[in-house]
Design goal:
Helix 1 packs parallel to helix 7 and helix 7 (339-358) packs antiparallel against helix 8. It contains eleven helices and 20 strands. The protein has two domains: 8-74 and 121-210 and 311-382, 3-Layer(bba) Sandwich (FAD/NAD(P)-binding domain), CATH 3.50.50; 83-114 and 211-308 and 429-473, D-Amino Acid Oxidase, Chain A, domain 2 (2-Layer Sandwich), CATH 3.30.9.90. Strands 1, 2, 8, 9, 10, 13, 19 and 20 form an eight-stranded mixed beta sheet that branches. Strands 6-5-15-16-17-14-18 form a seven-stranded mixed beta sheet. The protein has 478 residues and is of the alpha+beta class. Bound molecules: flavin-adenine dinucleotide.
């Protein structure tokens, strides 16, 4: 086989992914180096064409980690402008019937002190801040392979450019670059492909529950100013979900924009269920459609959400590096918030790496101890029974029990439930399940998949290699 000649660059630390966790790790590490008058070279590679390009926009952020990382973020102009001023939690009984859930019984959904933001804008702002600290950020460069030496990770190789769908070189072919480092941090987000490889190679998930996922859809809408209530956060459960504990959110952000979305857990049984169509149908619920009717959809995106919680969190350190943020599953599922926990996991990574570099240690074993004694672990500990309750007991009993756990016991029940069945094992064969028919999109509030993908800001070359590979072609035909 032809040996590829690659350019090689060396850093102290390489971070894969410029999301909240990767950027926070880089910033914290550089801050510590400056405080201690030492030099640390850091590089972040980001597969999106620019930082924020692959981040789904609308978000309610708990600013706890940002307050610790950059305490004067307000003065420095961070894009957190809209403080939440009203929470509303609703159970949707049907397309027209809604029951409000009084907020005193659902403190988990209280968002006072949090901000409605564009997460893409926050990442762009953090990236500028990182660059001002002389951190190198290479956007448009996916890390595609890990470099190992004596069973230790010593860096990554970025993807080769100019390869066609058959794997052949095209005229503009450019080999990927080798980035070598003392420590490599994988901050790829939910189910990152290098993260998956590392978890398997070093058995980081030994003794843990399998990871659990949801699929989340988001749209950004321009609302008619009279219908916009800046600072209002709405969460719903119920209609039109079919046998799943799907939920939605509707955040009224700045500039008359609303960030709306819908999450379907992937442990559903009926293969005829279409999470995309459920989301489109949900927008027709009368308490939602009243805002959208005269508005305009400006963007669309979909993304996996990691929700197994503490019981599924793999060991986060491995020889030569760390897994952080959603790549390790640090999201708090009952709060549907993973930004502040991902950021904090990155900051703890920075402290661990700094301490190892200072004492010329080659391992990062301290990470686990630092993580488990941090507020992220305490927060995730209180949230730990939410996913197993919903997974085991479903949309009615499960919601009731999870509610009792969170709202009465505040996550302090004296036991920890497990969810050892992977999501895919819940799916039944299509010919044994009833068909579901969804209403046709009306082109005003609801849309077909092609027009949605058109608004998703994704561009692919016609003949690029396919990165989704069906492992067993017979399964979809059952
Ligand atoms: C539908 C939905 C709604 C959500 N709502 C909220 C909310 O309201 N509030 C909240 O706090 N959290 C919310 N979250 C969760 C939150 O978005 C995540 O927890 C958070 O973004 C995790 O940060 P991260 O840095 O770990 O990963 P990500 O934000 O996923 O960032 C990973 C980055 O790595 C890049 N990358 C991946 N692989 C590679 C590679 N191989 N090479 C180079 N770059 C790579 C990606 O392009 C991306 O920029 C939501 C999630 C979803 C799916």
């Amino acid at each position: 086989m032809e040996e590829i000649q690659r350019e090689s660059m060396e850093y102290d630390v390489i971070i894969v992914g410029a999301g909240p966790s990767g950027l926070s790790a880089a910033i914290k590490l550089k801050q510590m180096a400056v405080e201690n008058q030492s030099e640390i070279s850091i590089c972040i590679v980001e597969k999106g064409s620019e930082v924020g390009a692959h981040i789904l926009s609308g978000n309610v952020i708990d600013p706890k980690a940002l307050n610790e990382l950059i305490p004067d973020w307000k003065e420095k102009g961070a894009p957190l402008k809209t403080e939440v001023n009203k929470d509303s939690v609703r159970y949707l009984l049907s397309e027209s019937l809604t029951i409000p859930a009084p907020l005193m019984i659902v403190p988990t959904f209280k968002n006072h002190g949090n901000y409605i933001i564009s997460l893409g804008n926050l990442c762009r702002w953090l990236a500028e801040y990182a660059e001002s600290l002389e951190i190198d950020i290479f956007a448009g460069f996916p890390a595609s392979e890990i470099i190992y030496e004596n069973d230790r990770v010593i860096g990554v190789i970025t993807g080769d450019m100019g390869i066609d769908s058959e794997g052949e070189k095209k005229p503009g072919y450019e080999p990927g670059v080798e980035l070598r480092a003392k420590f490599t941090v994988l901050a790829e987000g939910c189910r990152g492909h290098l993260g998956k490889e590392i978890i398997n190679k070093y058995n980081l998930d030994e003794g843990k529950d399998p990871q659990h996922y949801g699929i989340g859809f988001k749209e950004v809408w321009d609302l008619k100013p009279e219908l916009h209530e800046e600072g209002l956060v709405i969460h719903t459960l119920g209609w039109p979900s079919k046998g799943t504990v799907s939920g939605s959110y509707f955040y009224h952000g700045e500039n008359n924009q609303a960030y709306i979305g819908y999450v379907v857990p992937l442990d559903y049984e009926n293969p005829h269920l279409s999470p995309y169509d459920e989301f489109q149908q949900w927008k027709h619920q009368s308490s939602i459609s009243k805002y959208l009717k005269e508005g305009k959809r400006v963007s669309y995106g979909a993304r996996a959400l990691i929700k197994g919680g503490l019981q599924s969190r793999p060991k986060m350190n491995f020889p030569g590096g760390l897994l952080i943020g959603d790549n390790a599953g640090t999201l708090n599922f009952p709060r549907i918030k993973g930004t502040h926990t991902a950021m904090k996991s990155g900051m703890i990574a920075a402290e661990t790496i700094f301490s190892s570099i200072q004492s010329s240690k080659t391992d990062l074993e301290e990470y686990e101890e630092k993580f488990t004694s941090s507020w992220v672990n305490s927060e995730l500990y209180k949230a730990r029974n939410w996913n197993p309750f919903l997974h085991k007991f479903g949309p009615y009993l499960g919601v009731l029990l999870a509610g009792i756990d969170q709202f009465i016991f505040r996550g302090k029940l004296p036991f920890t439930l497990r969810a050892p069945e992977p999501d895919h094992a819940c799916l039944k064969e299509a010919n044994k399940m009833s068909k579901i028919s969804y209403p046709k999109p009306d082109g005003i509030i609801s849309f077909d998949k092609l027009s949605s993908v058109f608004l998703s800001n994704t561009n692919h070359a016609e003949d690029q290699p396919c990165h989704l590979i069906l492992k067993d072609e017979s399964i979809p035909y059952h």
